[in-house]
Amino acid sequence: MQQLQIPPLSDGEIYIGAIGDQNGSVHHIILLPGDNDDATFAAALAWAKSIGGDLPTRVEQAMLWERHRDQLQGDWYWSSETHHRDDSSAWYQGFTSGTQGNDHKTNTLRARAVRRLPFA
Predict the structure, then answer these.
(1) C-alpha 21 chain-centroid distance
(2) Which of 2, 29, 98, 102 would you label with 74, given CA atoms 20 to 30 Å apart?
(3) Would you list the domain boundaries of the chain?
(4) Comparing C-alpha atoms, which of 17, 9, 41 is closest to residue 111?
(5) CA 119, 33, 73, 56: dihedral to nearest 10 degrees?
(6) Alpha-carbon torsion 49, 51, 53, 57, what sign?
(7) Which CATH architecture does the domain made up of 36-112 adopt?
(8) DSSP class of residue 1?
(9) Do 33 and 13 meet the contact criterion of CB atoms below 8 Å apart?
(10) Handedness of CA 116, 32, 70, 6 (dihedral sign)
């Protein structure tokens, strides 16, 4: 079995962990520095891309809650995932209580970006 090697990090980045998908692909998750204040879902996605990242998935947000909640404010943060039954809503993670829910994409929540690297 291949041993986990943490990839090199840039200043301010925090290694979150490695995660796999249903196809067996594994990637590293790295939390980027900076926090985007209240923004709509579209604006949060654009902000994350502008700094070379993406919004975290719901699973990645659960990892952030479990291991690095001290790196986020006690507020709601957009995930990268649209709600499966309502295209006008997206999922979020609460970093006060740890709950996940969904909100209309036109509402404003905080955002934090991650980057993903393939597990080599």
Answers:
(1) 16
(2) 29
(3) 36-112
(4) 41
(5) -30
(6) negative
(7) Roll (3.10)
(8) -
(9) yes
(10) positive
Give the three-state DSSP class for 96.
coil
Tell me the pLDDT of the chain (120 aa) as tens digits: 556 788 899 999 999 999 988 888 889 999 999 999 999 999 999 999 999 999 999 999 999 999 999 999 999 999 999 999 999 999 999 999 999 999 999 999 999 999 999 886
**Residue type at position 56:** P
Kindly state the tokens that stand for 90.
Answer: 């997206």
Q: What angle do CA 38, 43, 47 make, to 5 degrees?
A: 95
50, amino acid identity: S
Q: Where are the alpha helices (DSSP H) in the chain?
A: 41-50, 58-68
